[in-house]
């Protein structure tokens, strides 16, 4: 797949960018005017027996509400519900209100597969917003491919995948990693890196990409280390870090381990507000800081595509709406924002295709542009990932990030990055 | 039936059924049995007496392999028991009855006896074991001896205490051991059960070598060929009942109290 | 390894690693002490031990929230109050659980395992419903967070010292309670011979209940202390359960000294190995070694040979 | 006096169960539900093993997931190799090896993967690998008389170790994602509806075969010895049996059953992941046996079906309440009906049926081996 794709990339990219500017306004116009369902008779827009009636279309939400992953996935569910509500308030999709069926993946991969199958086979949903971990995505992937469903997957992940049945609304690893490393190298003069992660595919693949990139730049990786998921004792690795004195601690620790890691790092006297060593992470969003505590991570840098503090108008509006719906205490992390894009991108693809049929939606998807995205303008690439900007945030002690850098252009998604495998 | 003091006067050094020599076991420095030696003849009935904590039950535990000796040897015919596992000791011909009735409460009397029948003792033997005429006949025969003929289908849990003791004796008998070891077989029994048990024991000890631990002096006098008196893990005195009863050392530590 | 570093660096690192091992040791002791009381002294397998710890952690979080909102002046010392409250809350829940579940199951130890597993599921969901699925961040007073720099490289984390001090304190308290007090004598009497203890006038039911409560209370304090170094979420308790049981079993279940010795051995082994290899492999090797030794010596490190 | 495989009553029970899984379910359910039931039935293999090992033998293993997982992984390795033909994996830097290896810079198939290219080898390995593992654990533990609680805790530790190992060695095992995207078995597409129906029946037939084997063990002298060992291990020893060998055998048998279940799981669900190896699934499998009735082989099947069905439907309607229900079930089954559904059936339904039929309940004789354990737990 990749080989067909690569050569065509750049010309299309430029053309699309031009188009983007022109189409943004009329497109927003469509959003505002009510589309009547009568213009799109059900028999025409739904030829494959999906759960679409004259006034309703059903989609699925598939996340973990119970189990260890519910910590992370709650935000995604909230964002997806918000997007659906907003779309409904604006007139729905092809004049139909969106109804959703929520299923619990229970942090258990076969349950995800089972529920995905139920949503597709029994409920005949028109699309599914869901999954968080790679493992759950891998588990549902064959189901989506077999029963031809459409999944909007929100998490930043390791890449190495490109399914016709998935739209990846988060960043793949190269998008997230390379810009961040380039930035610390050029702005902070970093020369040596210590790579650290939880022991599973995303941190390992990401660190692999990071290592290749660092070595390409002629710089040094002084250590690479993995700990089991849920590990809570990091004193030994902190000692090793002190000994090797890296310029940058590159940390991809996830879940409960995060909290332990940052608290112990701080307690061991590594002050991240100082210039050296500085800490760069791609796994700590504002959501995680809730558990870690802002005072324990202040000074760290995070590299991802979205921060709650992004100052653009779209985002201000989005944050306001989100808080109205889910309460003032809520924070919004990168994945939550990516999850919010799912329903919107689907709606646009459906309206572009003029049909709910999965095949037509898939065909219509590449090139879909969402200018009102909280993170700013994004566009779907042929490889079903998003063109998006990458940003570096500097952690403040109130649990928010201050955006200190943003890539000039959209970063092209490369799920199978050449030279990084 | 047999006279207690007709037992052989001095043990000849060979053809003992069981020779215990220099047996010592220590639990974290405490020597429960300390340099113990004694010998049991073929067809002899040996009673071990002694105050509580003298190490009597520990001796039986050592012989049947439940506890490992720290030092010393236990020879049964020409086998060294201290190096064998429990089930091998059983196969060699040593049977043991515990102080508290130790039976399978969830199984019936028949099944209890059947499990003790010495056949199909390996994993695959047990899987292939058939309940054939020979088994049934032997089980019924033993059940008759232990007064439980009518209770074959009863779940063992609902037997009386005395019946449970009998059942365990029956489980021992069906193994046809050469050496029977009984730990306080009449303890906790009603008077009538006690009489019946004495009768049972008299009947079964014929043709067996037996080691009995017992406190009931009347009972001891009745059955013992020789008596070993233990005190603090050592043999205090040994000989006929008459002999030990008049041994001043014994009187001092045990009978005198 | 020495090749890359100067002697000073290397010896500093040894010292630091030793200290990391000591912190891990304290963590293990704190985790295991409550369980050792319950499992070792009562023979009850409390699979919900981790959830009792997390209850302590949540109590600490509630305290920090309350103190910051209403009496900020107390903030620097609120942690001590929180730990006391954690002890009371977890202990009270323990007593309740003993009354409702455990006392019916003393003769079926494997069934206590299943019942308490069920309890742990219920508690997890309860925490999730009450406190939310996300982890909560417990803010700590500043004086507990920093470190003393001893030399250029060696820095001693204050929270590590705090956990160590707490461990010593709690171990001492438990020892005094179990081995020097009248109540401890009663506990041990009940453990050794329940009917006899009852016969000599010990209220065995009360002793059971308080012992269980004590074990759970200690778990609560441990959970409270762990807010300094770990995370507080509905399922965080699960992370501790395997380690905790292994520490107790490895030490020889009935022996509190054994528990401490085993915590020391395991923690030193793990932290040393972590220095030389990846965390995952260190963990696997540590667990395998412990299990291997347990297979060769099932009674654990410290046990009395018993006369049966 | 001779023992038959099943009493008349039990024949009826077997007939009902077979009819249910072989006729009623396939006739009334759509392919989606049927596949779900097929998945639940793979857990029943584990539960049946636990009934023998735990209910009868008193050996509580909290590590049955190890064997379920090993069986499943063996099957998954074969299927993955078949799915990773050089043509299918042409885009990889090293074609012909599983995709996850390629992502982890493994450039050559590890030697221990190579035999899994052979289907006959895989079929043998599915059972033999877990059994060898069980034998090693069992030999080490039972020979040294580790039992009861200690055994449970150590098996649990093994489950934890194996999970960390599988997750940590992702280049060779697929890591936390497991081995996914399995497609064909000897060229036969296992993802089609037709294949799922056939696999369902294979699974059901295997389960009935396992039930028969289990029953054969149960009614043999071995079965009575198991109960005897559970209640009075010492007495069994002093009746001349080498207890450790018996325990090892039953533990290995339970492991073999679990492994068959695991392999069928992989075939029906299409992937295998470390989340079936760990502590949580292992304990859940114990609850299937406990709910069904820890002494009833049929009960184990019903237990697995009912708990999983409840899990699915409960979590569809009240996802948040599911853990409460599951936890409550654990407690209830231990506190109020330790003999599970089978016990309830015997004490409540059977007398009722008997009264309706005006026939005396079959004498206690046949049920004593199974009914009412005076002491449920091992030492």
Q: Can you tell me about this structure?
A:
The complex is a heterotetramer of chains A (421), B (257), C (308) and D (379). Chain A is α/β, with parallel strands linked by helices and 421 residues long. Chain A is 44% helix and 17% strand. Chain A has 15 helices and 15 strands. Chain A has a seven-stranded mixed β-sheet with strand order 7-6-8-9-10-14-15, sandwiched between helices. A five-stranded parallel β-sheet of chain A has the order 2-1-3-4-5, with helices on both faces. In chain A, helix 7 packs across helix 8. Chain A is elongated. The two termini of chain A are 16 Å apart. The N terminus of chain A is likely disordered. Chain B is α/β, with parallel strands linked by helices. Chain B folds into two domains: 171 residues, P-loop containing nucleotide triphosphate hydrolases (Rossmann fold); 71 residues, no CATH class. Helices cover 35% and strands 23% of the residues of chain B. Chain B contains ten helices and ten strands. In chain B, helix 3 crosses helix 5 and helix 6 packs parallel to helix 7. Chain B starts with 17 loop residues before the first strand and ends with a helix. The N terminus of chain B is likely disordered. Chain C has 308 residues and is mainly alpha-helical. Chain C has one domain. Chain C is 71% helix and 2% strand. In chain C, a hairpin with a 5-residue loop joins strand 1 and strand 2. The radius of gyration of chain C is 20 Å and the shape is globular. Chain C starts with 6 loop residues before the first helix and ends in a 12-residue tail after the last helix. Chain D has one domain. In chain D, strands 1-2 form a two-stranded antiparallel sheet. Chain D starts with 7 loop residues before the first helix and ends in a 22-residue tail after the last helix. The C terminus of chain D is likely disordered. Chains in contact: A-C, A-D, B-C, B-D, C-D. Chains B and C meet through loops of B and loops of C.
How would you summarize this macromolecular structure in one to three sentences?
Chain A is α/β, with parallel strands linked by helices. Chain A is 44% helix and 17% strand. Chain A has a 7-stranded mixed beta sheet with strand order 7-6-8-9-10-14-15, with helices on both faces.
């Amino acid at each position: 797949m990749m080989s067909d794709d690569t050569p065509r990339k750049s010309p299309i990219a430029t053309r699309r960018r031009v188009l983007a500017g022109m189409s943004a306004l009329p497109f927003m116009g469509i959003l505002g005017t009510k589309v009547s369902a009568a213009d799109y008779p059900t028999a025409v827009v739904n030829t494959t027996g999906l759960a679409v009636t004259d006034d309703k279309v059903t989609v699925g939400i598939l996340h973990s509400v119970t189990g260890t992953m519910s910590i992370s996935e709650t935000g995604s569910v909230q964002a997806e519900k918000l997007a659906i509500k907003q779309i409904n308030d604006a007139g729905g999709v092809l004049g139909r209100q969106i109804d959703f069926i929520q299923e619990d993946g229970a942090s258990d991969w076969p349950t995800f597969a089972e529920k995905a199958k139920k949503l597709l086979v029994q409920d005949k949903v028109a699309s599914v917003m869901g999954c968080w971990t790679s493992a759950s995505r891998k588990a549902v992937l064959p189901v989506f491919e077999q029963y031809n469903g459409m999944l909007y997957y929100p998490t930043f992940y390791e890449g190495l995948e490109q399914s016709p049945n998935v739209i990846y609304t988060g960043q793949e690893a190269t998008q997230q990693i390379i810009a961040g490393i380039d930035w610390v190298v050029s702005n902070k003069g970093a020369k040596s890196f210590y790579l650290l992660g939880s022991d599973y595919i995303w941190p390992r693949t990401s660190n692999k990409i990071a290592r290749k990139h660092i070595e390409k730049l002629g710089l040094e990786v002084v250590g690479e280390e993995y700990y089991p998921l849920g590990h809570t004792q990091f004193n030994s690795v902190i000692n090793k870090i002190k000994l090797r004195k890296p310029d940058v601690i590159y940390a991809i620790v996830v879940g409960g381990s995060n909290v332990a890691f940052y608290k112990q790092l701080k307690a061991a006297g590594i002050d991240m507000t100082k210039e050296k060593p500085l800490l760069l992470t791609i796994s700590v969003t504002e959501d995680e800081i809730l558990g870690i505590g802002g005072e324990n991570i202040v000074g760290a840098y995070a590299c991802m595509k979205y921060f709650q503090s992004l100052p653009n108008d779209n985002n201000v509006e989005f944050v306001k709406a989100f808080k109205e719906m889910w309460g003032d205490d809520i924070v919004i992390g990168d994945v939550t924002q990516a999850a919010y894009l799912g329903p919107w991108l689907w709606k646009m693809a459906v309206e572009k295709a003029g049909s709910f049929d999965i095949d037509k939606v898939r065909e219509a998807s590449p090139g879909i542009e969402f200018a009102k995205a909280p993170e700013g303008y994004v566009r779907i690439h042929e490889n079903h990932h998003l063109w998006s900007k990458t940003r570096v945030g500097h952690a403040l002690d109130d649990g928010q990030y201050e955006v200190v850098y943003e890539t000039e252009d959209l970063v092209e998604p490369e799920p199978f990055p050449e030279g990084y495998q | 039936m047999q006279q207690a003091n007709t037992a052989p006067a001095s043990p000849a050094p060979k053809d003992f059924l069981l020779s215990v020599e220099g047996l010592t076991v220590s639990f974290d420095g405490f020597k429960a049995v300390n340099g113990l030696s004694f010998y049991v003849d073929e067809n002899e009935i040996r009673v071990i007496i002694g105050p509580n904590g003298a190490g009597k039950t520990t001796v039986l535990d050592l012989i049947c392999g439940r506890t490992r000796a720290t030092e010393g040897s236990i020879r049964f015919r020409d086998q060294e028991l201290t190096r064998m596992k429990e089930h091998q000791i059983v196969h060699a011909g040593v049977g043991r009855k515990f102080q508290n009735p130790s039976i399978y409460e969830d199984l019936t009397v028949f099944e209890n006896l059947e499990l003790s029948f010495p056949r199909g003792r390996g994993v695959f033997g047990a899987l292939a074991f058939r309940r054939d005429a020979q088994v049934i006949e032997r089980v019924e025969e033993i059940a008759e001896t232990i007064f439980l003929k009518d209770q074959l289908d009863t779940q063992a849990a609902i037997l009386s205490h005395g019946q449970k003791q009998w059942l365990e004796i029956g489980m021992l008998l069906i193994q046809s051991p050469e050496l029977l070891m009984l730990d306080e077989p009449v303890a906790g029994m009603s008077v009538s059960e006690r009489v019946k048990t004495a009768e049972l024991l008299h009947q079964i000890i014929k043709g067996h070598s037996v080691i009995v631990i017992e406190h009931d002096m009347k009972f001891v006098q009745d059955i013992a060929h020789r008596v070993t008196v233990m005190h603090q893990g050592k043999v205090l005195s040994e000989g006929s009942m008459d002999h030990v009863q008049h041994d001043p050392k014994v009187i001092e530590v045990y009978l005198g109290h | 390894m020495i090749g890359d570093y100067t002697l000073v660096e290397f010896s500093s690192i040894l010292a630091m690693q030793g200290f990391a091992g000591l912190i891990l040791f304290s963590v293990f002791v704190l985790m295991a002490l409550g369980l050792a009381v319950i499992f070792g002294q009562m023979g009850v397998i409390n699979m919900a031990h981790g959830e009792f710890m997390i209850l302590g952690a949540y109590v600490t979080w509630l305290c920090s929230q309350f103190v910051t909102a209403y009496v900020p002046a107390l903030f620097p010392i609120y942690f001590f109050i929180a730990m006391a409250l954690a002890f009371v809350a977890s202990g009270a829940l323990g007593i309740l659980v003993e009354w409702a579940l455990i006392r019916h199951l003393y003769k079926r130890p494997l069934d206590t395992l299943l019942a308490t597993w069920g309890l742990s599921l219920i508690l997890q969901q309860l925490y999730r419903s009450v406190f939310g699925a996300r982890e909560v961040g417990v803010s700590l007073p500043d004086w507990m967070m920093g470190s003393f720099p001893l030399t250029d490289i060696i820095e001693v984390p204050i929270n590590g010292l705090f956990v160590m001090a707490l461990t010593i304190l709690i171990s001492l308290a438990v020892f005094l309670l179990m081995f020097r007090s009248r109540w401890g004598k009663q506990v041990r009497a009940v453990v050794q011979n329940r009917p006899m203890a009852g016969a000599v006038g010990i209220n065995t039911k009360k002793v059971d209940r308080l012992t269980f409560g004590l074990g759970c209370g200690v778990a609560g304090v441990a959970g409270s202390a762990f807010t300094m170094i770990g995370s507080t979420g509905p399922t965080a308790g699960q992370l501790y359960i395997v380690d905790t049981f292994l520490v107790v079993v490895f030490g020889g279940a009935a022996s509190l000294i054994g528990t401490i010795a085993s915590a020391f051995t395991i923690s030193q082994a793990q932290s040393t190995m972590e220095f030389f290899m990846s965390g995952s492999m260190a963990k696997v090797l540590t667990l395998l070694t412990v299990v291997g030794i347990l297979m060769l010596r099932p009674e654990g490190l410290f046990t009395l040979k018993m006369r049966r | 006096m001779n023992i038959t495989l099943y009493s008349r009553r039990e024949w009826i029970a077997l007939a009902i169960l077979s009819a249910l899984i072989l006729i009623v379910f396939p006739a009334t359910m759509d392919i989606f539900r049927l596949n779900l039931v097929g998945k639940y039935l793979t857990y029943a293999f584990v539960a049946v093993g636990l009934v023998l090992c735990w209910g009868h033998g008193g050996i509580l293993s909290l590590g049955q997931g190890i064997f379920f997982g090993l069986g499943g992984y063996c099957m998954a390795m074969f299927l993955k190799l078949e799915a990773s033909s050089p043509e299918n994996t042409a885009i990889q830097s090293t074609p012909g090896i599983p995709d996850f290896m390629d992502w982890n810079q493994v450039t050559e198939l590890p030697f221990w993967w190579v035999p899994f290219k052979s289907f006959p080898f895989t079929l043998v390995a599915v059972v033999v690998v877990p059994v060898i593992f069980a034998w090693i654990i069992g030999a080490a533990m039972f020979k040294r008389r580790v039992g009861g609680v200690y055994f449970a805790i150590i098996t649990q530790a093994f489950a934890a170790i194996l999970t960390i190992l599988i997750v940590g060695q992702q280049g060779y095992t697929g890591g936390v994602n497991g081995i996914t995207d399995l497609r064909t078995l000897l060229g036969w597409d296992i993802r089609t509806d037709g294949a799922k129906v056939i696999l369902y029946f294979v699974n059901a037939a295997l389960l009935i075969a396992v039930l028969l084997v289990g029953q054969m063990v149960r009614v043999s002298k071995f079965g009575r010895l198991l109960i005897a060992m559970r209640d009075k291990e010492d007495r069994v020893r002093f009746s001349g049996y080498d207890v450790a060998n018996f325990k090892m055998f039953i533990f290995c048998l339970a492991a073999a059953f679990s492994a068959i279940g695991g392999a069928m799981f992989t075939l029906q669900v299409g992937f295998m992941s470390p989340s079936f190896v760990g502590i949580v699934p292992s304990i859940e499998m114990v609850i299937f046996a406990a709910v069904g009735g820890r002494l009833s082989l049929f009960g184990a099947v019903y237990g697995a079906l009912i708990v999983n069905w409840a899990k699915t439907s409960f979590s569809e309607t009240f996802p948040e309440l599911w853990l409460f229900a599951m936890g409550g079930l654990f407690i209830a089954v231990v506190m109020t009906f330790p003999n599970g559904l089978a016990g309830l059936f015997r004490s409540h339904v059977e007398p009722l049926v008997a009264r309706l039929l005006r026939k005396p309940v079959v004498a206690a004789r046949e049920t004593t081996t199974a009914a009412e354990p005076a002491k449920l737990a091992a030492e």
